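User: Show me sequence and structure for the first protein, then do the same for the second.

Assistant: Starting with the first protein.
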Amino acid sequence: MIRPFVLAVVAMVIFLPQLRAQTFNVVNVNVVGNKVASTSLILSVAGIKKGDELTASVTQEAVSRLYGLGFFRDIEILAEEVTGGLNLTIKVTELPKLGVLKFTGNKEIKTNDIKEKLNLTGGSYLSQNLIYEKRNKITDIYGEKGYYLVQVDFGLQYSQDSSIADLTYNISEGSKVKVEKVVLTGNERVPAKDIIGKMRNRKRGLLKSSNFDKEKYPEDMEKIITYLHNKGFIDAYLKSDSIAIDSARNRMTIYLDIYEGPRYYFGTTQFTGNEVLPDEILASVLKYKENAVFDNEKFDESIYEIYFLYQEKGHLHVRVIDDRKTSDSLINITFDIVEGLPSEINLVRILGNTRTKEKVIRREMSIRPGQVFHRSLLIRSVRDIMQLNYFGNVTPDITNLPSGDVDVVVTVEEKPTAQVSAGAGYSGVDKFVGTFGLGIPNFRGMGQNLSLNMDIGSTTNSYSLSFTEPWAFSTPTSVGVDLYSTNREWYSDYTEGRRGGAIRIGRRLRWPDNYFRAYARYRIEGDRFYDFSDSYTASHSELTIDAYEEYVPVYDTSGTIIIDYTLDTTYNYEYGSPLVGSLERFNKNWLTLSSVELSVIRDSRDLPQFATRGSIISYSLEQSGGILGGFWEYQKHVLTVSKFIPLLWKFVLASQVTAGLVSSPGADTTILESERFSPGGTGYSGIIRGYDDGSLTPDSTITRYVTTNYYDATSGSDSILVETVIDTTTYTTRVRGKYMLVGNFELQLPIIENQLYGLAFFDIGNSWLHQSDINLSNLYRGVGLGFRLVVPGIGTIGFDFGYALDEHGDDGKGWKPHFQVGTTFR
């Protein structure tokens, strides 16, 4: 008779070693309890098959491998003795699979953000270890945000067959822990407040958060040691750090203990091995002075400058080995330099240009194959490629060759350049305007510029077509042509019509340096003024009044005369010749403008938009009339100086000053109205935000003669001229200035690099009619905030809120919104 028996895994581990004399072979293996995991998978992983000899180690390893799958909550191996050996049964209890993952109570951190960091997806097997591991991960996520008192519980809701479970984490966030104080010990000569002031995690002012930031804590530790090293304490290190949290008040104290050590100073500096560059040149780029407090940062900068000097000479493989020897508190430095040989440029490769022709990029580069490598030329090449404004990024790379020479690889990142825009806008001058524009700055990938613009509105109709070839005749010579037609109503007084064209030519210069360019433009157009309003005519013309006086009786309601005679006067107004300065004097005729404009520009900006360093200096002279012919005759000068200065972090100070002068050899009547200056708002004459567009123009006193003819129109007789009286009246009218001075200052900050910028601004300026009127104490000022957004396919748009600091006309101090296309520094 067969004696059945069941052996549990633990029993087999205990008793099988005692039965070594008796061996058992596996007759058959079955699997029970599995619902999701396949039988073949379990048998394969267990590794026990028919005919195997069953030992304790074989059983242990099988169980271990099965648990390693992460599918099972419990595993048993049951054995039944049969003829010829054992029947084995592998009994498994599967873990439930994750159905829905839920979170409750999380307000400060979004559910999707927690899920992304947990990396726990539906269908995962839920073990107790996994559930607790993810709970601890949630605690860590909150800890990184300063929520150290967070509490996380969990609950499971099983399906009917227990194969699936929904997991819910219940979160009690609590409040952020604030740093109340930092206790520093070990410092003897450096004040604790100076060291602690370098930390992000410290008690800060009202406008800055004191919440503990776990991610910044390691940086804080590095910052304080770096600060000490830069103060000459180069042996300083952090001995210990710890934190204590008062959970009742959500306050944290940070304890730091440092070793300060002695303070060191720069001693002598010597150079060895240098032949290409003399000691004097190398010493001139050092960022430190002898006997100054040793500063690690300045020391590292000095080494960088030495490398830069050699790389500028083509010695890319130079090695600078610094040997520092301490003598008391002095650190004497010897730079041992292995100069090597200069490297030449073998190949210049351009990658990433999917639309732009390679020659368009290559012609902007100052480096050429066969040249000795100069780092400044590589930097200049990158700058000039970026100035094309076709690329979002330009990345240079240098590949060393076995010969010692190098290949230069420039990778460009194309950005959308074609700009198609359609929409509507509003301005104080043009009112509502519908716009359509097509701009292709990189036409056919050849660097050519083609643009078509149409503005159609109740007060403005404008059409323009422009084309520019930047490299005519395969030389750095630009040639362009413009055609345009505009009709614009000005302040409901009259309409100005302009139609014409221009031919442009420009050239890059090598003197005084290669940042200079010169341009010339010939413009011919017709201008006329028409559709004058009645109010404009009435206020800009001579006036004749005919007064008809008649004596008539006055009757009461019964028809009885109560007054024999009373004087009754009727008036007839007749407008005569236009006054001086009135545009009606041109009789709506087309008047020809023929002018030549010469411009010189030096542009050393690092970027064409939102520059972070560099400057622009431009001067233009326009001469019209005279030997050029045409009706309009004037000379116009405009000087603009812009400077871009990087400040702390990513802040940039952009400043610009514009001065303008327009004059005529004859009467001012030959100066075209639109060529005068009318700053204010965001107009092109001069930007002074906080005021209406074009409103900051001077007033002029106009004398008008009023002729009054008095006629006797008594009943029964013809009107007889009795008396003529000529009076003079004066009134002020706003005209555009002949002199202008405008300054703009902006503090710019990239919110999203190359896409969204915030700014704070200060504008100041005015215009004057006569030189004697210029008074720099009579400048209008505006301040405010704004933003600029780069929209692919449209360009840069912006919105500013400007506050007028000075009263102007009937407008008091106050806020005004301004819409801009492009940047202030255009």
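Switching to the second protein now.
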Amino acid sequence: MKKQVDWFMHKKNRLLWLIIPVLFLLVLFALPSTLFNTPYSFILLDKNGKLLQAKIATDGQWRFPHHAGVPDKFAKALVTFEDKRFYYHPGVDPLAFSRAVWLNIRQQKVVSGGSTLTMQVIRLSRNKPRNAWQKLLELFLSLRLELTCSKKEILELYTAHAPFGGNVVGLDAAAWRYFGRDAAQLSWGEAASLAILPNNPSIVRPGKNKAVLLNKRNKLLDELCARNIIDMQTCALAKLEPVPDKPLPLPELAPHLLNSLQGNKLKQLTPDKTLIQTTIDNRLQERVNEIVHRHSNVFSANGVNNAAAMIMEVETGHVLAYTGNVYRKNKPDLDPYVDVIPAPRSPGSTLKPLLYAAMLNDGLLLPHSLVADIPTQVAGYSPQNFDLGYDGAVPASKALARSLNIPAVRMLQQYRIERFYGLLQHLNITTLTKPAGHYGLSLILGGGENSMWELCGVYSSLARVLNHYPAYNARYNINDVHMPVVVPSSIQKKQPKWSELPDHFYLSAGSIYSTFNAMNEVMRPGEEMLWTQFNAAQKIAWKTGTSFGFRDGWAIGITPKYVVAVWVGNADGEGRPGLTGISTAAPVLFELFKLLPASSWFEIPYDDMQYVKTCSKSGFIAGDACNSTDSTLVPLSATRTAPCPFHQLVHLDATGRYRVNSDCESPSNMVHTGWFILPPAMEWYYKNHDPTYTTLPPWRKDCINPGSGNVMEMIYPKRSNSIYVPVELDGSTGKSVFEVAHRNRSAMVYWHLDDVYLGATKEIHKMGLSPSAGRHTLVLVDENGERLEHYFEVIGK
């Protein structure tokens, strides 16, 4: 018995002496933590995992990043062709290795390597010369790899790094380069063709030795059939499939998005990430590209070479389509590689709705309140409407719908530039990098710079706030205000409890709803309001913008579900005549909306709105003198506005043709009525546009004119303005045109400058003057003795 035990122990020791060196070698040849340190292509996928765009790796190879999973068809074809006992051996196949040694000795040259897929992974990762010593190392490292990784992981490593001919590495790149589709969509014939390539890619790669490739593929299909992996019918059909020819170009649906993400211009991901699944919808992206490209071909006839568009989903903030520019690779002089979407550019009038909403929110305006549209000069700044005309007075909603510049500037002057600048910062606008005073009142007309990315973020945030207002029981969630999302984040923001939600916001739900309603009233291009006669035409809140010098044409549209933005112009900033938002960007905008499902209009936020009695003519809250009223739904905050300032109680004689007072008529014989009266300057222009406007009746001759002091108003220059008198080309002093408005068009006005009589005007009250440098007093007297004194200063230099 003792001899048997000694024999066993002695045998065990002999086994240990054999095992210890093997274990030592396995430890000695430990694998690095990262098996492959190769550069990868930068890959962009859509929301369903479809390829949008790819950029070649820095070493010139099409090598897609490694990801989990190998398509079943390719896995079965590969294992059948390369390593039939892959799932059973420990990394080294003794039978295959012995067979290779025997064949090599018999042929007296290397005709078979006997490598398993595991050994090939090791060889690919090390990239060392092929000799006996390296083969031995590969053998030990393969055993070591099998201890670390599962068979599934080893197959994934091989599939991602195997050569497929030329500069194509990995199955994912090969499937797109040779068949133009994702690897998961490969047929049996295609999977078999690709399974053959890594074995000898230099000889049988597509486009070279096509007959050899076809023969090898068919043999593999026969073997798959013989092993009952596929049936005979599938095998026969797969053999009818053509083998791939020369490599195909990869999809180029979102080149600008890829570059901006890689450069982190959109602040959406870390720079070291190379495989990015985005929120883009592949099919929608393709159609948006086509529409933008088609319209751009028309614009190019006017020297307008670039255009961009973006579509995003309101609820999630996800970007569904991102066309950063018209991609013309063959015309590099047209700046096709510039991504306009994140680029700061003049936004034209696209910020006007935000000012309108802010004034409603702060109780400074009602939706249809009249605002002045008259010649305006503020500290030397003289804004002009696009048509160079004046309405005198216009409802605020119409001023927004028509994108009038002068009312917008006057509204911003009232609201204050610093407050508006702060609001834009609260809404996550970051492109305004200078202080508010740097931009001044021109900010509302595009005097600053904004990007399409941030404009879409702001308007989608407002739509989201409005959509969620009823669900939050008349409260607000600050998480609703965020920029667009094109790379979904795995980090979810914690939703606050209802009790934690504030009951106020930067812009109230009522002011946002009223603003979107005003934006919906804009006449669509080429339709002359006929679209409103069709029930199928969905309501869209939209706004156009045109930058100074006709450099940028904008259009942005909002519905409860989507935000669409379009920009048209030249990336180098060159302006072109006729480049306006309404004529270029707007038609593209509405064609893009046709790609999207129609949605209903925003739900009215009744908890933040109230019906009030307003004057029909002025849009203000009705006062005692208003004789015609409407019931208007306004934001709660707007109910704080003052009563109508344009209606006054006037006293007429029994005929109603003359004004009277108690000095010439008994109060019992007077007719007391409310009268719509605008200030003289507003009236001067307003009555030319509204034939129903009636000026105040004259005083009856037997009445003493009480001198209201409000029959004349200076249009230019305004009180205390400092002005320049122009110098002519010959060096002589020119003339500055002074203008005054009088309620009575036929009245005679007598002009006096510094007590010197200058002359008289009738109907058109303008006079060219050449006052010297310094302070002056201008006195205007009409034929009824009404007097207006105006002070101004002339700056010599």
